[in-house]
Amino acid sequence: MESVTRNFFLFLSKSSLLNHIARNWGSAVASKKIIGGKDFESAIPVIKRLNDQGMAVTVDHLGEFVTKAEIANERTTECIQTIQRIAEAGLNSHVSLKMTSLGLDIDDDLVYHNMKRILDTAEKHRIMVTIDMEDEQRCQKTLDIFKEMKSQYEYVSTVLQAYLYRTEKDLDDLNELQPFLRLVKGAYKESAEVAYPNKKDVDLNYQKLIEKQLLSGNYTAIATHDDQMIEFTKNIVKKHNIQTSQFEFQMLYGMRSETQQALVKEGYQMRVYTPYGREWYGYYMRRLAERPANIAFALKGMTRK
Ligand SMILES: Cc1cc2nc3c(=O)[nH]c(=O)nc-3n(C[C@H](O)[C@H](O)[C@H](O)COP(=O)(O)OP(=O)(O)OC[C@H]3O[C@@H](n4cnc5c(N)ncnc54)[C@H](O)[C@@H]3O)c2cc1C
Among residues 117, 186, 200, 211, which one has the fewest Cβ atoms lying within 10 Å of its Cβ? Predict the structure, then answer.
């Protein structure tokens, strides 16, 4: 039953018609509980509040699978402005973005050019830009862009997904670049040809990757809401005497807020992924797919302003 629900929401997440309707429907329905604001300015108070609570942030301007160069260029400009605003306002925030929002599905030159424009600004302000990982079909291209950018810029990082069979090898290949990596389980619908179909195997691979990346000495972001993975990380860092400055936990805005604060109180670094913007639909559907309990949470959000 759980996998039927998951597949249903992942199927819905790709509907451009529903995305269009949702965009015009407004953010009241999208539940302010998991989106920072309709634009960056309206997300600033949320970021400040999280910063005041001892948490760092990474902001994500929602929007993906862009098919027009004009829109990809607009997204790039918006991202540059966001980096400038983070610096001006003295916010403790990174930026996360998706390659399909910068033109990955349109033209290679376009996406490389847009990414360089963003990283020129990020480098100037010393603000990290993390390339989110999208579906498996786009994984190789995304890693190629990351490698190319990492050879030229310092403030760039990316994400690896534990559900893909290929990921351990990707982690090994990236090691020589000494990358800042966010490790996640993976949020897209993938076939058993490329991804572990069973949750148990994903969890085991996730633990393997966390341990490997931490022991390599590279900076590691453990992005999960799963207590077992958090406990696993705590045990590994204790066992190997790894400093808290070498890793951070990451969670999504609006998810497990009490746990986020508890981790800060325990002395761990915590970063909250805070999306903003009107293109909330795909993000929202993936969250519903991950956890059926989020459905009840979402329905409550629809009836409350
Ligand atoms: C900061 C961040 C960035 C991400 N970036 C990407 C990315 O770039 N690409 C990508 O593919 N995926 C990304 N993801 C999503 C990720 O891949 C997973 O789909 C998502 O985090 C769900 O997996 P999980 O490890 O949190 O826990 P799951 O495996 O979904 O759940 C395990 C257990 O954790 C607990 N749990 C989970 N969620 C909650 C909750 N909301 N409230 C209470 N308990 C909960 C439950 O006990 C559950 O049984 C990101 C996730 C985070 C947190």
Answer: 200
